[in-house]
Structure formats: structure tokens, C-alpha cells
Amino acid sequence: MNDIILLAHGSGGKLSHDLIQKRLLPSLANPMLNKLDDSAIFEASGHLAFTTDSYVVSPIFFPGGDIGKLAVCGTVNDLSMNGAKPLYLSLSLIVEEGFSLSELDCIVRSIKAAAEEAEVNIITGDTKVVNQGQADKLFINTSGIGVTPFGIDISGANARAGDKIILSGTIGDHGIAVMSQREELKFEVPVESDCAPLNKLVAQMLNSSPRIHCLRDPTRGGLATTLNEFAQQSNIGITIEENKIPIKEGVKAACELLGFDPVYVANEGKLVAVVEPVDADKILAQMKQNNYGRDAAIIGEVTNEHSRRVAMRTKLGHSRIVDMLSGELLPRIC
Amino acid sequence: MNDIILLAHGSGGKLSHDLIQKRLLPSLANPMLNKLDDSAIFEASGHLAFTTDSYVVSPIFFPGGDIGKLAVCGTVNDLSMNGAKPLYLSLSLIVEEGFSLSELDCIVRSIKAAAEEAEVNIITGDTKVVNQGQADKLFINTSGIGVTPFGIDISGANARAGDKIILSGTIGDHGIAVMSQREELKFEVPVESDCAPLNKLVAQMLNSSPRIHCLRDPTRGGLATTLNEFAQQSNIGITIEENKIPIKEGVKAACELLGFDPVYVANEGKLVAVVEPVDADKILAQMKQNNYGRDAAIIGEVTNEHSRRVAMRTKLGHSRIVDMLSGELLPRIC
Question: Which has the closest alpha carbon to A202: A52, A82, A49?
């Protein structure tokens, strides 16, 4: 009874205050959060970025991460994909009655570690508890605020014919890692999630060239869905080459076994950039300096042909249209 | 099958895009949200306020409101309680597979109406779908950003001996309304939730006097818990008078029947203000001009006695300590 979440932890009363004081503040403390007022006050000015994501990944612990690390990295990345420097996060927990407090402690430690790596502070939060059976263990929402440097205008709508498409590394790692943990599949080569904060990689890219038109992290729906979003938002066509797309042997084998196309499998530590052709090699070289970009590759380009569609030249030399994900490949992947 | 949420609505692929384009954007559209990038960009400067809340109320429809109205009002109010003018909200949905799309439409309409009343825009969002049985219908997270006027410093830590305590209206309406809907209780006098955005009331109060020290909306844990938070954060004592606390007959009767103490029952459209004594009558008069403050009353004062505790003089003339809520009175009230 002492190691589990009770309904009273979500009452707003004594046990709620205990949970905050004993389990959350010791790891996450900072002057803004410590005030514990209804909202946190911070100073900022300029173009600010605001984003939100709820995380419902199952299982909550997986090779390479857990729901806490994912909740920080995912929101840090969504800010970074507009070129913003992430500054502050909120943290809101929906916990199922009976959830283990020691598991919660692990997750809070992951949140702390990821926030430290990304250099963001959690400055406001909320905890709700629902009766057993009314949620599955733990859902986390993080929202984030960042500041966008002057002159940066990155949007899915900015791709232009001739632009090069850069992918920051191997695809499908997160989806296959979560899937293998969920289904207790053992692969010869174990696959770890790529879950990582990409804000410093993006800062380095922007430092090397401001001429980055689009950035997006291909999470749910994978690389194919992100490229289709760019094609539709920007009203252009995209051509990619299958043999340029980096993919780990373990992921390739798992996808073959499971019948998945890796271009639809979720990533949590990768980005796709659409950049001016003159700067593509320079940006690529810069990316390779960063641990999270060392496998980066130019995988294709933007074209005026086949508008609003993505075409892939396969390894066999054919060309096929790669549509947005239709249906659901892997529920609760993030 | 056409009127329910499928797992594929949360895939990030085609049905996710359909849901956003057909169900969410038509009601919530604004230039920042419409861009549909990973984060929304806005301009601001100064002291900004940031808050988050997840809403898990059950049932999702109740007399006087629904989870959508609550999710907007609750977050607008958390910003207002630091004296901030709410500007932007995020909206994140966790939906159970099989949830009714027409019920979702109703809730989106409530969100739109509440956001219009509060004059805030929803500029970024997220939708996740979990398998049937892994969540209860619909959970909503809203986070919010506001701007705090120069010179305003409102915090639960700012109460000083001699300050007056103002309550903006009747207590317990929200808790009893949700409870009666949940348990299908019929009371002689039906009780409606007080769920409302209080930002304009707060703006009027600040206009009439900047000497407002603390503001908080007594939600989970009720009036008693909020006053105990002030006493602890400010290291002072608080004395209130039971017969000054406004309470509706229907709520009083329901509380007697259910064995609840109304000072612990949740409110969603009320605030408690701690103000300098010289300005108390002026602020009170101003509050009574606003529809959400017409039953406002001075219910007590801050004292150097019984530090960090709240004492209530009862109708019978005794004095008793009113502690913070201990245990759980009503799970999933907000």
C-alpha cells in the first residue's frame, strides 16, 4: 500500500501535496516551479514557439527509453522543428490508481535526465489520478515554449523545387523497439529506441546555414507521412531514393518479419530537413559532427513533378508513389 | 462505424489528418493553428505566465458544462490567478477507441464557445487514441500562456496579516453538479456547475486596485484547501466566518445528504482573493458588477495568530481548525 498511487494522490489535498513535495520537486526543482502557484511566470520576448503532446506509449518502459524520456524529447523536438530554442516545459500526469510509486520515481528520473540534456526547465505541472481500469498505468502531457531566433522561418509549407531532403539517421528504430518490448519479440540484433532531444543538432544546422526551409521529426506515420505532409503543405512533389535511406540491419529484419514498411515506422530522435541545394552538403557535414546526426544522408529532392505526392525510386530501379500512412500500423507508439 | 473514433484516428496518418481538418479546424481555426506545423509561433514580450492541466472529469457531460468547457475555463483561470491575461491555449486529446464522433463534436463546440468568451485562441494541439478499455472516453489537456501586466506580483506566498479574504461567490456548485450527474441523484433544487472563465473578473479587480496579494480558484480540495495553501505558502494564519460563506440551498441540502463539508467541495468558476484591507470594499464592489462575482463576499482575514493554519468561526460561535483536504472526496471531479 505504501508503494502505490492512491486516488487521494489526485485529490488536490494532503497526499497531492506530498506527492509533489516528495516525488517531483526533489528531481525537478527550479525557482519557477518551486513557487507552486497556479501558473509559472517567466520572462521572454520575440517570436515564441508553443507546442503540446500527450504520450500514451505502451509499454511505458522500452529498450532505449521510457515514457518520461519520450515526453521530454518529443516536445523539445516539436519546438526545435520550427527552429526554436526550447526553454520551458509543463508536465501533466494522468496516473491510474494502483500505479507503482517506484516506477513513477524511475520515470521522474528519466524526465530529469532528458530535461538536463536538452537544457530545459519544467516550470509548471499537474497530476490527476483516475480509478483503476480507467487509464492504462500512466499518460503524460508535456507542452513546451521556445524562442525562435530572428529571421528564422521554418515551416512545412516552405519547400521549393530543387531543395534537397536530408534525413538525420536510421529510420524505424523507435517503432521496432517498442513493438519488440510489447510483443516480447526477441530479435537476433536487439533494437533500441532512438528517442533523443534534437535541439542542439538543429541549432548547429541553423548555425551552418539559415536556409533551412522545412524541418520535421518523423514520429507517428514515419518518414513517408512527414514527406507527404511537406508535399501537401508546400504544394510540390518529392522524390526520394530507397537505397539512400539509412536503416539498421535489425530494423530491416524485424520489418521483414512483421510485414512493416520501414518508411511508416515511428522515429523519436530523427529529423527530416528540406534545405536549399547550395547549402545541402555544408549542412550535412555539420550534422555528421553531432552524435544524433552521424548517419545523416541526403535522400532526395523537391520537384515540380507529381505535385503533392512523394515518389520513391526503389532499389530495383522502379519508381513508386509512397502515400501517407493509411490505417493504423502500431497503436500507442508514442 | 462512421460515428466512432478508430485507432487509426490517432495514427498520425490519413484519418488523423481527416479528424483535424473536418472536426477540429472548422471550429477552432485561426492563422496560428491553421499552419499545422509541429509548434505554433506567436509574438509576445514581458512577464509571461505558463500553466497546464489535464481534465479527466466523469461524466464528461454534466449540468452546466462538459469536459470541453471545463478544459478551457480551468486553464484560463489558472493563468488569471497570477494576474495574467490569457492569450493562447494548447489542446491535447486522449480519446478511447470507440468514442462517439458526434459527442466529440459537441465538446469541440463547447471548447469554441468557452474560448470565445475568454477571448483566447487555441494555437497548437495533439490527438492520441488508445485501445478500448485503456482510457475512459476522453481526457483533455490544455496548457496556456498569458501575459502579466507590469507591476503585478500575485502569489500564494504574498498574504500579510490584516489582509481581507474575498470569495467571489457560492461554493460547492461544480462538485455537487458532477456528483449528482454521476450518481443520477435527483435533488429538489437542481444544481449546475459554476464552470466559467474568470479572466475578465480578475482584470476588473486589478483595474480597481493593484494591491491584490493572492488569487486562487478553489478547485480540487475546495475553499479549505486553497486557504490552507495560502497559510502555508505565506506563513500566516487565516480566520474565516462560516456565516459569511455564500452557499446555494441546493448545494447545502446535497452536502447534508451526502455527508460532505462544502468547504472541501470543488468549484470551477470561483476565486479567492487576499487583498489589502484599505482596498477590500472597493474591490468587492467592483466584483459585484461582474456576473461571475455578483455573490462575492468578504469572508475573513489574515492574522499573525495560529500560523500556517485556517480557523473558522462557526455559525454556533465556536472556532475550529479547518485542515487541508485529507483523503479523496470526489475522484475525477475535474
Answer: A82
